[in-house]
Fold this sequence. Notes:
Blueprint: E1 66-68, E2 82-84, H1 94-122, H2 149-156, E3 160-166, E4 171-178, E5 184-187, H3 189-192, E6 199-202, E7 208-217, E8 222-227, E9 248-253, E10 261-276, E11 284-291, E12 303-306, E13 311-318, E14 334-338, H4 339-352, E15 356-359, E16 362-364, E17 375-380, H5 385-388, E18 396-400, E19 403-404, H6 408-417, E20 423-430, E21 433-440, E22 442-445
Antiparallel strand pairs: 1-2, 3-4, 3-6, 4-5, 5-8, 6-7, 7-8, 9-10, 9-12, 10-11, 11-14, 12-13, 13-14, 15-22, 16-17, 17-18, 18-19, 18-20, 20-21
Amino acid sequence: MEARNVTDGWNWRQPDGTPAAVDRPLPAGPVPGPPAAPGGTAGSASSPWWSDALHDPWRDPNSPSAVVVQAPGGGPDSEPEPVTDPDLPRRPGLRLVFLVSLITALLAGALGASLGYFLAVGNGVAGTTTLGVGSGQPPGLAQRKPDSLAGVAERLLPSVVTVRMNSGTGVSVGSGFVASRDGYVITNQHVVEGGKGAATVTFNDGSTATGSVVGQDPESDIAVLKVSRTGVSPVEFGDSEAIAVGDPVLAFGSPLALSNTVTAGIVSALDRTIRAGEPGGQMRYYAAIQTDAAVNQGNSGGPLVDGAGRVIGVNSVIKSLAVDEQQAGNIGLAFAIPINQAKRITQDIIDTGRARRTVIGAQVGGPGSGSAAGVRLGTVDAGGPAAGAGLKAGDVILKLGGHPLEEPSDLIALVRKYAPGSVVAVEYRRGNAKQTASVTLAADVK
């Protein structure tokens, strides 16, 4: 009796309909085949073995949808014949599956190659693709116009210095700027106040020089140093009377000891009267330039420049919400001493060692002084500028130079703004009548 194996997980059936077992002997004689197909003989010895494997309940669901069975009488050269199940939908052939797999592999390879290229470029590996288009122009500052913010900063920074002064209890750090070719430097008086010995002046290239204090004026908050160095670059001075609200400005200095710092803003107000100083100490009065350029501790004494790079003010005071002065920071309100006033004080200190103070020849005080209606004069100096213009004690000055007055400090600060000998218009009230006068301000050497 001939035996036939069932292989590869295929479940063949015996002719009686029972499942075939592995190595089960096959019956002798002709084996019935499938129903006759057109042009053929059912169950003929020349027909292939027929398998019902596709409908077999023990069939592996992962088995292919076509099986090949060798005829029992066939030899090794017999041609296999596929037998398919007409009840199942046609599945993609192996050729289509292979083609899809090949295309997927090619796409994955292309994507991997692209990612690898970009990663290589990101890690500094040279690529073959040139990104962007060259401008053909030289890079850097060569393309920045001299009147641009960067051009102004480049021109001004060599003239800006950091000032360090040993006060005995610590080191005060501020800013300054070179005012002349022979080494005079302007800074704030409160930067060098209480200093012991000479100051250390650091230039923007990192070099240092010793700066001796030539003189200082606490009331105007201006001090002048002299550095022992040649070849310094002085600033260009502007006119603080020619600026307007909205003009662009740059503030230079060493805020929080960060040297060579430049911030930008605009002139946000003019003639903002400032009274600064410690209670019981020296008070400072000036009609300041207000700016929103960021100014912090350490900017004191540095230049405030206009859009053309000309110095129009000396950074001096900031407004802050902090109670402790050491924790004060910028909130968008900073104030600079007008350069016309600072330059005049500097010239006095260089020429004579001390500054002249501009006066009107009257003292404020008495009932109503500092009311919203103006500033009342308490006394008027005989032979002084106010008396020469016809003003008397008890008169209430409403405006000075067209600027309304509300506080006594307003009158002092605005008078300090002008140089001695300046003629200013005064509007005042005597009783119920308003009157005007022209006052020629004078100098008082302290």
